[in-house]
Amino acid sequence: MLKKGQKWYKIEDVAEKYEDSRFTGGGKILDKKERETLLSLVDPKDKKILDIATGTGRFAELLSENGAEVIGLDASREMLLQSEIGSVQGDALSLPFKDESFDVSISMRFLHLLDPSDIDDFISEVGRVTKEKFVFESLHPLSLRMLYQWALPQGSRLYSNSFLKEIFHEVSVVKKVKSHERFIIPYGIYQSLPLDLTEEIMELDEKTAEDQEWLASTIYWEVFFE
Fold first, then answer.
1. Domain 4-225, CATH 3.40.50.150 — does that match?
2. In the prediction, which pLDDT does 101 show?
């Protein structure tokens, strides 16, 4: 049975309007900052990269433009039809690739759609197909994010750093983990702000969020594999 979020991403009208609904107005600044953050964590040049839950291919295209060979994977055919990057329709818990097929894997705006019981299997499966590291993000439960959590159509979950670190410890292929705090103000608020206000607010947000594990709504993770 498909979860609420999985059903939502498979709606053709949602897929077609996904970019326009999120990355206009203040969302343009958020998009720019997200791209800068990803490139600060991943050097894409001459790397083979897997983008899990690639959606419309926003980050896959960025990495490709910066020298990577990128394959996108998503469960939603409707979302993949919006992407210009080579992609595969598939299940993130059973990746259709051989062991160590990629140098790096990424997954943005996805972990919150997984059930807690699936996260260790997900990390293990990513580790199986990835040689170097996995970069992804999580949404912190003790942040402003929870104030509008009930309103999200995806039925998403928020995971604490301590919960995720415990899982990393249990996955045998994980060698080392680094975390990076970003954005006290959640994504959805930025996407609803007018463009002329967003840049100034985000500059203050970034300064406040740095190294503030309990305030940041978004945590970026680097998981290094054996």
1. yes
2. 98
CA distance 45 to 84: 19
Cβ atoms of 170 and 189 closer than 8 Å: no
161: nearest Cα among 127, 143, 138, 185: 138
Which strand ranges, in their side-by-side order, compose the sheet holding 174-182? 87-89, 69-74, 48-52, 102-107, 130-139, 218-225, 174-182
AA identity, residue 145: R
Q: State pLDDT tens for residues 174-187.
A: 999 999 988 888 77
Q: In the 8-state DSSP scheme, what is residue 98?
A: -
Please list, in sequence order, all residues whose beta carbon lies within 8 angstroms of the beta carbon of residue 166, skipping any fewer than 6 positions away.
none
Q: How far apart are CA 63 and CA 76, in angstroms?
A: 21
Q: What angle do CA 210, 211, 214 make, to 5 degrees?
A: 105
CB 77 within 8 A of CB 70: no
pLDDT tens-place string over residues 184-207 = 887 777 777 888 888 888 888 888
Q: Report the predicted TM-score, pTM, of the whole model to 2 decimal places.
A: 0.84
- Listed residue (128, 86, 82, 88) closest to 105, CA to CA: 128
Domains of the chain, by residue range, sit at 4-225
